[in-house]
Amino acid sequence: MQTLGGLLTQALHLVLMLLAAPLVVGGVRWLKARMLGRRGASPLQPFRDLRKLLRKRPVLAENASAVSEVAPYVGVVATLVAVALVPSFAHGMLLAPLGDLVLLAALLALARFALALAGMDVGTGFGGLGAAREMSFAAFAEPALLVALLSFSILAGTTNLDAVAATFRDGLLGLRVSLALAGIALLAVALTENARIPVDNPATHLELTMVHEAMLLESSGRHLALWEYEAALKLTMWLALLAAAFLPFGVAPAGSGPLAWLLGLLAWVVKMAGFAVALAVFESAIAKMRVFRVPEFLGAALLLALLAAALLFVSTGLA
Amino acid sequence: MPLPWIVVFFPWAAAVVLMALPRLRLAAAVNLGASAVSLLLALLLVNMPDGEQGWTRVDALNQPLLLLSAIIGLTTSVYSYGQIEAKGFDPLRLRAYHGAYQVFMGAQALALLADNMGVMWVAIEIATMASVTMVAVHGTAAATEAAWKFFILCGVGIALALFGTVILYMAAQPVIGHGDVGLSWSALRAVASRCDPGLLNLAFVFLLVGYGTKAGLVPRHFWLPDAEAEGPVSISAVLSGLLLNAAMSAVLRAETIVRAHPGAIPPGPFLMALGLASVLLASFSLWRRRDVRRLFAWSSIQHMGLAAFAFGMGGAMGNLAGLLHLLGHSLTKSAVFFGVGMATRLKASQKIAAIGGLASSHPALGWSLVVAIAAVAGLPPFALFASEFLLLTEAVTRWWWLALPLGLGVFIAVAAKVNVVQQLCLGDATPDAIAPPGRLAFLTTLGPIWVHLLLALVLGAALPAGGAAMLARAAELLK
Amino acid sequence: MLTAFSLVLALLLLLAVAAVPLAQRPAGARLVHGGCVAACLALALLGLVVLLAGGAGPPLVLPFGPPWGHALLALDGLSAWFLMLIGITGASASFYAMAHPPVRPAALPPFPLFLAGMALTLAAADAFTLLFGFELMSLASWALVASDHAQLENRRAARLYLMMAALSAACLVPAFGLLAGHAGGFSFAALRAAPPSGWLAGGVLLLGLLGAGSKAGLAPLHVWLPLAYPAAPAHVSALMSGAMAKVAIYVLARLLLDLCGPAQPLWWGAPLLVVGACSAVLGALRSNLEADVKVVLACSSIENIGFIVVGLGLALAFRGADLGPLAALAAGAALLHALNHGVFKTLLFLVAGSVQRSAGSRRIDRLGGLIHAMPLTATCALVGMAAAAALPPLSGFASEWLLLQALLAGWRTGDVAFQVLAAAGTALAAMAAALAAAAMLRLFGLVFLGRPRSPRGAGAHEVGRLERWALVVPAVLTVLLGLLPGPLLALAQPALASLLGAGASAPARGFALLGGTGDAAAWYLPLTLAVVLALAGLVLVLLVRARSPLETQRGPVWNGGFINPPEHLPFGDPLSQPSAAGMAQPLRRMLGTSLFAATEEVRLPPPGDTRVATYQAGFTDPAQGWVVAPAAWLRDAVAARTERMRDFTIRRCLSLGFATLLALLALLAWLEAH
Amino acid sequence: MTYGQLPYDIAHLLGGAMLLLSFVLLYQRRVQAVINAFAMQGAVLAMAAAWQGAMQSAPELYLTALVAFTAKAVLIPLALRAIVRRLNLHRAVETALGIGASMMAGVAVVALAILVALPITTGARAIAREDLALALSVVLLGMLMMITRRNAISQVVGLMSLENGLVLAAVGVAGMPLVVELSTAALVLVVFVVAGVFVFQIRERFDSVDTGAFAANHGEDAFEPEPEEASTAPPGAPPAAQRGDAG
Is B460 on the interface with C (CB under 8 A)? Predict the structure, then answer.
């Protein structure tokens, strides 16, 4: 029964995420446009874009290798699996035992590696520049991420996301300060990973400042569609992750029935909408920073995460 | 005549013959033959049971050293046979060279075998004079200076040693009475515990400083680099291989006597201090060498320092380490000198800068020299690795703080040798100064090198039980 | 079993001797390397059998040895694990060398000796035999590094290398001396029976870390490594990085975890943790800055060795805090990472060798676009580099996952200072992993992707048939190791037992790896993950292709609207591609300026001037400035001082002797008066 | 024999005379006078040996006395004079340490010798202590002379005086075996040195054998770091000029 429930929630979760991903991107764009006083494209616009791109004939550079063709699939698959591991409306999904936070980080790294490879495949200056910057940012983002995970691991005793989220949902945690610090660190990492302002601007094609888009310059057709979809999935995944960890209320516990699922779903939609609004507000209010300021930004995140862990050490040591 | 006496007198008889032989090749061949016979005699001697024959004595300490000296004597004369034509000796120098060589071998054997401390002193004096002759045989200004320095410093040294010997007798005389027995090592050792400790101490200081000069211990080492660098290569080989050992064994014999008295000031720390000073000074000095033979002469100082240190520590393991070190050093160092001698002949220079890329121009010689220098540096699988391992572990076991100076000294010295092996053997070859010598010259160089290396290998990693037992007995003897 | 091992060892020695006459002919070189393949396979098999059997019984007393005793051989779990490792990497490297024998005859005889030295070190059951093998290994590998000695930088590398080897001996011998003096014997059984404590143990720790660490390439004694690995022929570099560094790790583990006994305190882990984490970050960062393929790989070795040592340090700390399962986790991570790194780094060095021969250069700025000419090599390289970048589900990730789990559990030791250290270690390890990924991406992207950067590189061709297998086999192994870490760790059970005591259990259940303790432990299920990834990939491809059926079309590079290259430059201007220095620029600015004193200088001619603009970038390794250079200066200063004595006249020589005599006499008088 | 007995007193007196002559040697400023003093010391040594021979009824000591007298009191001083004449040497003694200072050093050395000899033979035979202290003083003074004098003749004389001390010690011990052989061997050594001075035409001092201008560096070049020596290890990356994307 449990297995069946797990299978069902897993399937529902996947469908939900697949559908939600373009919507989240479109929604954030729409919200931002509204805040900037523009009408903005419909939140459904990403769906249309994807369909259009899929229909187009992809053009590859003359000296492109198989990497250009394979990498998009790898990127999407890695992100997809990562998405499948992050609980949305219910705990105890089929793949939950697989859902380790370290593995999650590694899957994202795999997607990043694929993207950077694709960017370098043709040997253009922009692709290399984007790839080098993307990988360099990761060198600062990953420590912050891992140390933030350390706080989770201390509180929950494990790095399994499902277990962490379940522990947090069940409450009994009086140590919110350190969790908040870790949360801020994770937010900074999330912004970096998703190429959002202030690290990167998803809307720009200004050559010398872009990171993520620079690697996609040579992609077209379904390859570009895949990359766009991958970015959308990743954003959704991060928001879901933050929701699962820091706003754990309402999620259906493992082995619960459809009613709890529905409640969980509702709660999830509310949380995601909240995050989308927050993201839009944040991005409208903040300017992009210089590329070489990013290490400072992420370094601050790392310090916060370390502080969170240190606070926990002290409190557990006293306890 | 007992066998040990034959071992001593045979080379002297050969020396007389050689001094009469003016012909180059013939003299070298006779020299070779005499050395071969000496080796046979030494082999016989090794199988003799311990015992005294008047002034001489056969025991576990001098048996391996004597065998070693006979082996090195033979290989050196093989090497010398292949190189003799290149030396351009006039008949007088030829006679002096070969005569002095065999006189030296005999005196060296006597110094090892002597039971009577006075006879030992005389033997070492004879060996000194013979080796001075050999150092000076080239007759160049530098050789003369080296010989002179050698002679003055060692002359004072052995004069002091004689004083020590006299004091030794002075200490023993009230207990032991008059006569030859008063200088006999075994008798002295037996009665040492009843002798006056103050006199024993005083005797040891003089013997240490005196024979220590001959053993090349700092700060009386000054003669060694010049003497080993300026004479013929064969003298470098036998000096570092044999004379130093004989001097060290004299120091050891003195040390065992003093050590036998429980009330005397322990002699070990004196030896250790001089040894450590030698190791440190020599290992740093190695870094400033520009002359290849001087470099390896300094390396001899360093190795004698290590051996002295080991003997100073004493105990079965310390003495074993010291003995192994003496044997291993003689074998490997003389192998290096053969290779270096050939290289200096090819390049007509002893400057390290002038000898380069031997492995490129003469692969067999170059790589053999690489292995030989590695062996001298104490890398496995050769004997010096085993002895240095034992020495270092034994030292830190007893005095942990010695790990730093000793380890530093050994490391600096190895690094310097690494440096020089690369300069000599690797890289682009420098041009040869002479037409390539015949096969004979190479064979008589490479053969001895590899024989020595093989022996060092056996000594360090696969010593037969008999040999190990003999070394253990010798270590026991020195306790 | 040990008899069989001795026979293999004898075979290797025989090969070394036989190689001297055989070296002149290619067929002879093939024969020798073929023999090495057989010997290595036998070693790997022996290791496997011993691991399965859980040990090889009592030590074998060899009929020879040092003059004061006999050499002892024994194979316990730890030895067997590393034996398997050097068997596998050695077989790969030898097989590669069989396909392409080295050009220099001088590189042949030391090769079997090198293998024999490593095997002997692993199987030694007494301190003398261990160090004998260890130094033999160093000497033989020095000869291999120096085999191509016509080039100055190779000679420099070889020189520094052997000096460092001497340093490690000068540290390890006293370390064992401290142990043996306490125990009264050199055999491991005797050493184990009397573990050291207090300052003595601290001395062993320090000396062991210095000695084994300098050989393994831990910061700050790693300076030789980026010089020596590239100087050797490819298969030797592969072996040095893949196997020899692991032998040093073995010595470290044997000394600190096994011989020093289980009663060591918690803080013992701290130095290893600090040194390991710093090495990992420094190595990974430097591999991002280097411009030579083999140097990049060598620096990546520093990083991976750092990871392994972090694992060992954590194992020590957890054991000191009585956290057995966590100690097993950390030690398991170290062991697994040693194996994984051995295999994928061997693969990568072999790839580097193929690239060098095929495209004529090791410099990244002369390579490019090789994926078109050498597709198979590129695929193998991608597998190896992805593993080195710790990407799931390949081998590098499995062990780094375990290691991160161990680091994340560091807070359980309960000591606040160590907790903070572990947290910092977590951050550094994560940063090193990300930097490694960046380095591997840079390497693969610049060497295999893009366009050729030199005419010689454009004329590259795929490797030959035999060589192909030499690349494919380790690549397949890398994948397999990534998928089956669970069974492997179960196999490592005896190794863990010899490190941590019989009670240690491998952090693995079936096909899964297990992080942390108790019910709440995190799981890593590589096989499941791979299946899920493959399924998802399959479904994705089918779905996308169903919606997007049109085939791809080729067109000129878009490149943000840049114009096409002129006709006379068939690959375009090679310099308009990202360069090695250019790709390194972000990290050089972000981290290099502070850690490596990196400098950049751009010279732009004024407008109208037709001279080309120049860009110069450089850096210095901090170990060079802080460790090596001062040591050399000190040595020269002392040497210069001692040298003054050499100009003494005979009279002054005599004076010195006289002064010594007087001093000794005065000492005597003083001693006797008291 | 003990204090107050005539045989001992005479032996003691002779030993004391040798010590005194050592000081005289140290004190002399002219080469001729040094040689004369040495000849006297040789004669006293011969007398001491002969006296000991008579006392210990050891006839071989007469041989030693004869050898010592012939060589040290007659032949070697003559040879030294010949050298001085032939080589036309400076007649004044060049000192490295002033005469006064070397006298003081000599006194200090003798004090040390006594200090060293004092604790020896406690209880056993008090007179051996005196003998030893005298001989040791002569030996050490000889050595002191070698290092505080610059000209070769004085240095040779110092060595021989040292050797006189040895022989004095050797003949002083009752029943010393091989005493003739040893003293003769020591004499041979000294003769070799004298011959060396003669053959090598050492005019001024040991340090500069006049067989040519010896290189100041003893056969080695002055130390100049070689290129390979200069940098123990090259820095990680040579700053190679690279054109490329400057970001």
Answer: yes
Range of the domain at A160: 2-318
pLDDT in tens, C538-595: 999 999 999 998 999 998 887 777 766 666 766 666 667 888 988 998 999 889 888 8
How far is it, in rounded angstroms, from Cα C9 to Cα C121?
A: 11
Q: Pairing between strand C553-555 and A59-61?
A: parallel
Estimate to the nearest angstrom the gap between the alpha carbon of C490 and the chain centroid.
Answer: 24
Contact B426 C170 (CB under 8 A): no
Domain that holds residue B418: 269-479
Question: Is B399 in CB contact (< 8 Å) with chain C?
Answer: no
State whether B393 and C150 contact (CB < 8 Å): no
| Mutation site, B117, B126, B148, B419, interface D, largest D CB count within 10 A | B148
Confidence at residue C574, expressed as pLDDT on a 0 to 100 scale: 62
The whole-angstrom distance between B231's CA and the closest CA on chain C is: 19
- Separation between Cα atoms, residue C66 and residue C64, nearest integer Å: 7
**pTM assigned to the model:** 0.92
The 3-class SS string of C422-469 reads HHHHHHHHHHHHHHHHHHHHHHHHHHHCCCCCCHHHHCCCCCCHHHHH
Instruction: Quickly tell me which residue has 């160090």 as its tokens.
Output: C131
Rounded CA-CA distance D146/D159 in Å is 6
> Which residues of chain B have a CB within 8 Å of the CB of C182?
397
Picking from D140, D236, D244, the nearest residue to C621 by CB comes out as D236
The whole domain housing D85 covers: 6-199
- C-alpha C34/C-alpha C22 separation (Å) is 13
Per-residue CA distances from A127 to A121, A238, B295, C557 (Å): 8, 25, 58, 12
How many domains are contained in chain D?
1
Other Cβ atoms closer than 10 A to D126: 11
What is the total count of domains within chain B? Answer: 1
**Domain count across chain A:** 1
Average pLDDT over residues B75-79: 92
Partner chains of B (3+ C-beta pairs under 8 Å): C, D
The complex scores an ipTM of 0.89
Q: In terms of DSSP H, where are the helices of B114-191?
A: 117-136, 141-176, 185-191
Helix (H) / strand (E) containing B292? helix B292-313
Chains sharing 3 or more CB pairs under 8 A with chain C? A, B, D
What percent of chain C stands above pLDDT 70? 97
Tokens of A50: 């994807």
Nearest-CA distance from B163 to chain D in Å?
Answer: 6
Please report whether residue D137 resides in a domain. Answer: yes
What is the DSSP-derived secondary structure letter of residue C611?
Answer: S
Asked whether residue D14 is assigned to any structural domain, the reply reads yes
- In chain C, residues 386-415 whose CB comes closer than 8 Å to chain B: none
- Cβ pair B145:D139 closer than 8 A: no
pLDDT tens digits, residue range C232-287? 999 999 999 999 999 999 999 999 999 998 888 999 999 999 999 999 999 999 99
Q: What is the pLDDT of residue D247?
A: 31
Query: Helix B363-376 vs helix B439-461: angle between axes, to the nearest 10 degrees?
Result: 30
Provide φ and ψ at D95, rounded to 5°.
-110, 145
Chain C hits for A62, CB-CB cut-off 8 Å, are 554-557
With an 8 Å Cβ cutoff, is D6 touching chain B?
no
Cβ contact A128–D245 (<8 Å): yes
What is the average per-residue pLDDT within B117-143? 86
State which residue of chain C sits closest to D208, comparing Cα positions: C649
- Nearest C-alpha in D relative to C673: D119
* Beta carbons of B202 and D116 less than 8 Å apart: yes
User: Which residues of chain D neighbour A125 with C-beta distances below 8 Å?
Assistant: 245
Q: Where are the alpha helices (DSSP H) in chain D?
A: 6-27, 31-55, 60-68, 76-87, 99-117, 126-148, 152-172, 179-199, 227-230
